[in-house]
Amino acid sequence: MLLINCPYCGSRPEAEFANGGQAHIARPADPMSLTDDEWAAYLYMRDNIKGLHHERWRHANGCGRFFNASRDTTTDVIKRTYRMGERPEAEHQGAKP
Amino acid sequence: MTDTYRVRRGDSVENCNAVHFTFDGKSYQGLAGDTLASALIANGVHLVGRSFKYHRPRGFVSAGSEEPNALVGVGATQSRYTPNLLATQVEIYDGLVAESQNRWPSLETDAGFLNEYFSAFLPAGFYYKTFMWPRTAWKKLYEPVIRRMAGLGRAPAEPDADRYTQVFAHCDVLIVGAGPAGLAAALEASNSDATVILCDEQAEMGGSLLSDRSASIDGMQAAEWARAALDELRKRSNVKLMSRTTAFGWYPHNFVGLNERVTDHLSNPAANQPRERLWQVRAKEVVLAAGAIERPLVFTDNDRPGIMLANAARTYVNRYGVVPGKQVVVFTACDSAYRAALDLKAAGAKIQVIVDLRKSVSGHWVDKARAEGIKVRSGSIVRGTSGRLRVKSAQISNAQGGDAETVACDLILMSAGFTPSVHLFSQSRGKLSYSEELRAYVPGESVERERSVGACKGLFALEGVIESGARGGRDAATKAGFSPRGERSYTVSAQSVGADAFIGSVMTDHQAEKRAWVDFQNDVTAKDVRLATREGFRSIEHVKRYTTTGMATDQGKLSNMNALGVVSKQIDVAVPKVGLTTFRPPYTPTTFGSFAGQSRGDLFDPVRKTSIHSWAESQGAQFEDVGVWKRAWYFPQVGEDMHAAVARECKVTRESVGIFDASTLGKIEIVGKDAAEFMNRMYTNAWTKLEPGRLRYGVMLREDGFIMDDGVVGRMATDRFHVTTTTGGAARVLSMMEDYLQTEWPDLEVWLTSTTEQWSVIALQGPNARKVLEPLVEGIDLSADAMPHMSVREGRICGVPTRLFRVSFTGELGFEVNVPAGYGRAVWEAIFAAGKPYGITPYGTETMHVLRAEKGYIIVGQETDGTVTPDDAGLGWAVGKAKRDFVGKRSLSRPALVREDRKQLVGLLTTDPKVVLEEGAQIVLDPTHPIPVPMIGHVTSAYWSATLNRSIALALVRGGRSRMGEELSIPMPDGVIKAKVVDSILFDPKGERLNA
Amino acid sequence: MLSPAIMRSNALSPMQSSSTTAASTTTLSILPDAAKLVFRGKTEAIEAAGAHFGVKPSLEACRFAAVGGRSVHWLGPDEWLFQAVNEDPIEVFGGMSAALQAQACSLVDVSHRSDGIAVAGPTAALVLNHGCPLDLSLKAFPVGMCTRTVLGKASLLLSRSEEQVFHVDVWRSFAPYVWQFLDEARNLS
Q: How confident is the model at residue A97 (pLDDT cuts 50, 70, 90)?
C-alpha cells in the first residue's frame, strides 16, 4: 500500500485515495470547435510511461481534494505531490501543458 | 513410544514436561518446546511424507521454514484442520493430532510409488508433451487422472472455526529476524527514542545462536547471550518483540506484512484469541536480518529419509537434544559441516567419514575433526545411497569417478554452503548482485528505506554478523530521525567456517543424474533441468516453468541456486547471465484466514439498510442486493409466490395506492450562486429557466457521450438544487462532479454535499396517493393546481420537516416524501396506517421495475450499458440542444454516435402473450441464417404485466424506431420466440394518470 | 391529524444490546444526537460562520475546535462540520443560514446522515487499528485531531477528544458494520 502525501492532510495510506489517471490533460475550452480527431485524442489518448509519470489522485476518504503526484512507475517512488493548478517539477516526454 | 534418540537436555526444550501427541494415528511423546520434527526424530521417525510426483519416501531435510518434504496435516477436527504445515515449524502440545500427506493407503506402503517405476516416462515437460492430443481425451481421460493425482494435502471438510484479525501498525524501525544480526540491530536501534519492532518466524528468538555451542559473546555462551539480549530488549518500552511472526511480504513504501501465529502452539487457546493476526506494518526504516539457508548437494539418491542438511542436524542436537542418527556420513563442500559433525560426535553419534568435494582442505574445523579422529576424504563425493524407507549406506568415490566404497550409515549430512535469504530485499525491488565467492546472490542497490545485515547480506563470520547488525540498527534509527546513545562493543569469540560453496550437480556421470534431486518437493532432478536446456529453454524463468523446479510451496528455497548451477554449467553461461526467478510474497505459505481477517460472515462487506428496512423485515419482505444495499424486493402474503405478490402489488398500486422505500437513491445538495450554471454543464438538460419549487428529470453523460446516470432534480431555491442519482451511481456521480468542479471550473461558486443518508424517501403512488397524504401534511397544498406533477414543496409531515416531491416512476399520481432519516420508519408507518382504508400495499423493487417498464422509463444499467446515448434511449428530448457545451456534448456528434442503425430502445410484444422473454436474450432477423447469425439487438427488460395481462419487454434494436410493427426473432435453446416491435411506452401513452 | 412528537431513531440502537460482553478494556458507546451542518465555502465565510456559531473553526488541516456541546471539525480546505449536541437542527440551520446570507458558501443540514460512536479505553487506538490504516499514536494523531479515513470497508470521520477516547462519525447505513467490526476487534485484541 503506497504512502501518499496529500498536499492538504500530509502522508496518508493509499486506502484513503482514488487514482484519477494521467494529470495535466485539460478539458478543451470549446469542445465544439474541435475536429473529431482532436476530440478523440483528448478523450482517449494517454501516455503509458515507464519512469516518472504525473498522475491525479483524489483524497477520497480524506479531505476530498484532487491533486497531482509524480510517481516513478518502475519503483512506485513518489517524487512529489502538488496541488491542482501547479506545474510538475520535472518535465518529461509525456507531460502535456 | 519413548524418545530413544533424545540424548540430553536441549536448550529449547523443557525436560520435565512430557507432551503427548499422535502422528498418523500412533501416539508419541515429546517435550514441551519440541517441534513436531524434533519430537518425531527423538522417536526415531524419519519417514514423514511422500514426494509429489513419484511418491518417493521422504524425511526431514531441514529444521526450519525452508523444509520441502515434511508437510503434514494438523488438527483433531475438520473445522480446525490445516493441511501443508511444516513439521519443522509445528510446535507440539498435548493432544496434537498430525498426519502425513500424499500417500495411500499408508506412508510405508503407498500405491503412488508405482510412479517411481514409470519415472522414465515422466521427464520434464511430460504433461505438456503427452496430453496435447487427441484433444477429445483431455476431458474424459487425462484431466480426471491428473486431478486425482494432483494437489497437496486435503482441504478441510468443514468451515474454519477459528477467527483471524488484521492490525495496522507503525514503527520507526522494523527488524526482520532475531538472530545475531537482528538482535544487535535491535539493541542499537532501541537505544534511542525510536519505536522498534523485532519479529522472528520461530517460537524462540535467537536464530542461529540457539544452535551454537562453540561460540561465545561478551563472555557468554551464544544462546545464553541471545537470551540476555532479549531480556534487555523486553525491558525497553519502545521495543515490541514478536515471535512466531513471519515477515512474509514486502509492499511499496516500507509496508511489510507480518503474520503472527497466535494459538497454533496451544492446547486450549482462550476464546478471545484469534488464531492468527496479520500485522500490516508501515516502518520508517527496515533492517533485514533474515539469515541464510543451507544449500543441499545434488547427488544420486540424495532424497532418502535420513539425508539432511548438516546444520539442521546441528540444530536438532544442540537445541532439542536429539540426534537424527547414530552412524553418520558427512558430505560437504564447506567447513560448516565439520562443525556440525563435531557437535553430533559430542552428542554420541559416530561420524563414519567426512566426504569433502574440495580437493584440498585445511583450517580450524578440519584440523579439529582430524584431531578428534574423524576420517576426512577430500576431493570425493557421495555418488549414491541405499535404503528404501531410511538411508542405509553411502557409496563414496573420488570426485572424478573410479571405484566406490560403501559405508553403512543411518544419517547423511550434506552442505553446499549457504544461500543468503534475499527474498524480502528482492520483493522490495532492490537489485541483487551475484557473488562468485559465495556462489549466491546478495543484496545490491536498495530502492526502499532498508538495509540488509548479517547472513542475508552474505556475511557468515559471527563477529562480522554482529558488527553489521549493530551498524544497521544504528543507521536505521539515525535515518528515522533519532540519535542512538553510546555505541556498545561486542566481544565475540568464534571460529569462522569460511564461505566456501558449491552450486549445481556434483555428478560427473549424467546418466546417474536421473535420481539426483534438485527440487525435492516437486520431484525435479538434475537430469530434468539438463533436459530442459537441451530442448531449448535457456532462461531460468522458462526452465522453472517447464520443469516446475522452484514452483512448489517452498518456492525453491533449497533448489533455485542448484538449478541455476546446472543450467549455467550445461549451456556454459555465467550464472548471473542465466538470470534469477522473481521472489514473490508470501515468503512462506500463509493461511487464507489470515488474508481474510475479519472480512467474513456478517463483516465480509458492510450491509447497508435503510431506516425502513426493519419494518419491511417484520412484514416478511424478500430482499435483493443492490450493490451493498439491501432493498425490499416484494412483500409476499400468505400463500403467494413472487409472481402472485408482484401481480397484486402492481394491481393495487395502479388501482388505489402503493408505498415504496426509495431511500437508497443517491442525493446531492448543490448550493451556490453558480449552481444552475454548474447543473447546465453537468447535465444534458437546460436548468436556467427551471423555477424554484419545480422538478426536472436530468440525464448525465460521460465525456464520451454515453449515459452515465439519471435522476430527478428539484430546485429548492435559485442557488440550491436537490439532485437525486441512481442507487449505485451516488458515489460515482459525486466524484465526477467534484472532479470537474475542482479541476476544470474552480472559478464556479458552487459546493456539493452528499445527502443520500440524510433523507428517507417514501414513494406513495397511485390514484389515491393524495387522499392518503393530505391529512398528514402541514403547510403544503397538495391539490393538482397548487402542486402539479414535477413540483416540490417544503413543509411538515407528521410534525417533522419534509421535502415533498410530486413525481412518478410508475405513471400514476405520485409523491416522494423526503424526511430526515431518523424519522423515516415512523413517518412510513403513519402513512401506511393512513392508507389502510384505501387498501394500501407496500411494494418492492420488482413491482417498481414492472410499473416503470409499462411506462417505458429506463433504468440506467439495465437499459443502458455504457454504450447508449440519450437518443438511443429515446431521451433526445432531455438534451438541451441550444446549450453551448455540457459534459459529453461534443461526443454526441461523433460519426459513430449519429449513425442511423444504432441500437434504439423499443418495446417488444411477444406473439404469444403468455411468453415472457429472457433479459439479455439476443434478437435476430432470420433465425434460419447459417451460424454465425447476425444479431441486431438484445432484450433489456422483460416482465409479466398484470395491468396489461400479457408479457412486456424493452429492447435495444438496431434502427429500432424505424422497425415499428416488424416481427423479430429471439432464438432460445428450446425454440424461436417471435415478437413485434412497438413503442416503448406500453401503458397510458398520453400520461393522463400522472397529471391527475 | 398530526402525530404527536415522532421520536428520532438511531441506526446503532439495535447494536448496543447485541454486543459482546467480553472482558475487553475498551468500550463502545453511542454518542448523543446532534444538529450537524456541513459548511462549504470561502475563508471569509467560514470566519463569519464561526463567529455566529460561537466556535472558532480551525483553519489548520485535520483539527477540530469545541466549546461546550458545540464543535467545528475541519473536513477539507473548504469544508467544515458544525455540530451542536442535543440541539434542534432546524433552529441551528435557520440561525446559521440567516447569518450567512451574504456569504459565498453552502450550508447543508446533515443531522440525520450519520451516527456517532465513542471508542474509549487504554487500547482504543489498537482496536481502531484493526481496520484503520492511520498511525494513531499520540505523536501522529494528537488530541484535537480529526480526519475522514477508512475502517475496514467503511468511510468515516475519526477524531480524538481525549488521549484514550476517539469519536467515530459514520453514515447511518454503515454504522452497524462499523460497530460490529469494532466490537469484534476489541474482543480479539
A: very low
Helices then strands (H, E): number in chain C?
A: 5, 10
**Which residues does A contribute to its contact with C (CB < 8 Å)?**
1, 8-10, 12-13, 15-16, 61-65
Residue of C nearest to B610 (CA): C173
The string of pLDDT tens digits covering residues B801-810 is: 999 999 999 9
pLDDT at residue C15, as a whole number:
85
Beta carbons within 10 angstroms of residue B934's beta carbon: 9
| Residue C165: Cβ within 10 Å count | 15
- The CATH architecture that domain B899-982 belongs to is Beta Barrel (2.40)
Task: Tell me how far apart the 2 most distant CA atoms of chain A are, in Å.
Answer: 43
> Nearest Cα to B727, choosing from B662, B653, B632, B675?
B662
Q: Given a cut of 80, is residue A91 above it in pLDDT?
A: no
Distance CA B394, CA B306 (A): 11
CB of B452 closer than 8 Å to CB of B422: yes
| C-alpha span between B602 and B609 (Å, rounded) | 13
- Under a CB-based contact definition with an 8 Å cutoff, are residues B527 and B519 in contact? no
In this prediction, does ipTM exceed 0.95?
Answer: yes
The domain defined by B165-292+420-493 carries CATH number 3.90.79.10: no
Q: Residue B909: left if φ>0, alpha if ψ -120 to 50, beta else—which one?
A: beta
- The parts of chain B modelled with pLDDT lower than 70 are 1-3, 9-10, 15, 104-105, 111-123, 126-151
Return contacts of B367-374, CB within 8 angstroms, 24+ apart: B368/B338, B368/B342, B369/B338, B369/B341, B369/B342, B372/B342, B372/B345, B374/B341, B374/B342, B374/B345
3-class state of residue B188 by DSSP: helix
Residue B820 to residue B757: CA distance in whole angstroms:
9
Neighbour tally for B17: CB within 10 Å: 12
Please report the sign of the dihedral spanned by the C-alpha atoms of residue B903, residue B907, residue B913, residue B916.
positive
The pLDDT tens digits of the residues spanning B751-775 come to 999 999 999 999 999 999 999 999 9
DSSP track, B478-516? HHTT----S-----EE----------SB--S-GGGGGGB
* C113·B752 Cβ contact <8 A: no
Identify whether the C-beta of residue B820 lies closer than 8 Å to the C-beta of residue B803. no
Q: Which of chain C's residues have a Cβ under 8 Å away from the Cβ of A63?
A: 61, 75-77, 79, 147-148
Q: Which fold has domain B1-158?
A: Ubiquitin-like (UB roll) (3.10.20)
Pick from C181, C49, C31: nearest CA to C116: C31
**The CATH number of domain A3-83, selected from 3.40.630.10, 3.40.190.150, 3.30.70.1650, 3.30.2270.10:** 3.30.2270.10
The CATH code of the domain at B296-416 is 3.50.50.60
**Euclidean distance between CA atoms B621 and B964, whole angstroms:** 39
Residue A93: DSSP 8-state: T
Subunits adjacent to chain C (3 or more Cβ pairs under 8 Å): A, B
